[in-house]
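Appendix B. Chain record.
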Amino acid sequence: DPSAIRASVLRHLDHPLPQPNPQLRGHGHYIAALVALARDESPDADLVAMEAVYEAMSSQHPRILLVRVVSDFLLLRLRWDVSRGMVDPALFDRAVALYSSEFALDSSYPPGFHRLAEVHALRAAWRLSQGEDPSQDIADGLVRAGEALARDPRMPPALATRGSLELLAARTAKTAEAREASAQQAVKSLT
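Structure tokens predicted for this chain:
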């Protein structure tokens, strides 16, 4: 039961620890936000709490950890905002910059490439919903998904993101042949 899981996570967050661990507290809010998203509920309170915890951590923890943790926050925020159709476009740029710095720190980390591909997929879907051209984000996202899959060929989230980008490419294709080719690629990625 998702509501019982969320209640349990939040109850543990409020339990006083001898030496509070901010990373654990932030991760608890991350899990609670994921549960809220799965139930199609607002994760806003947990996202605000996550951001406060991670801001407090910024001077105390290694940059690579901070980049990965804050990037998780940004991706959750973008998923929620895109699902509601209310996105601050600057968040996309912030997420792209953050994930790009993750590559500079650890270029062998496949989830970083996947997450950047997902940011491009979210921005492409958002741009399409706004009547804008999503082609550059589709192309950039497909490159990043390909880089993730080159490092881990069976990475399910990267395959799903590549499939969603290929479906977006099919929706925006100018010719029937391009639409068919993109749709066939999406089927291969998603099955």
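Further analysis of this model is presented in Appendix C.
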